[in-house]
């Protein structure tokens, strides 16, 4: 509507643009896309190592980004409450909750397979790139 009235004003056919005070509608927000249960199971099955399975479960249950997991500190994990403090975008900290599968997967991976993942462990954090 605004552009319909703008054109004759710009061309000089009318002296005043009658649509200047009309507010344009706001663009609607998109609904986020999500995975189906079948797609999630396919991703679980595609994990080839215990580390991949543990990280997938943690990411899936918490919604964390890879960058947040990379900077995850062992001291920030509360195993009994299944919570973790992660540092996200803008260096903001937030508390996330993980499911029992993520708890067992991470705990087993970090404790039992320490030698296998030693090159990936940072001194203070869980994983490095």
UniProtKB/TrEMBL annotation:
Q: Where is the Tyr recombinase domain?
A: 30-129
Q: Which keywords appear in this protein's UniProt record, sorted alphabetically?
A: DNA recombination
Lineage top rank: taxon: Bacteria
Q: Pfam families from the entry?
A: Phage_integrase (PF00589)
The UniProt entry, under InterPro entries, shows: DNA_brk_join_enz, Integrase-like_cat_sf, Integrase_catalytic
The molecular function GO annotations come to: DNA binding
Protein name according to UniProt: Integrase family protein
Give the source species: Neobacillus massiliamazoniensis
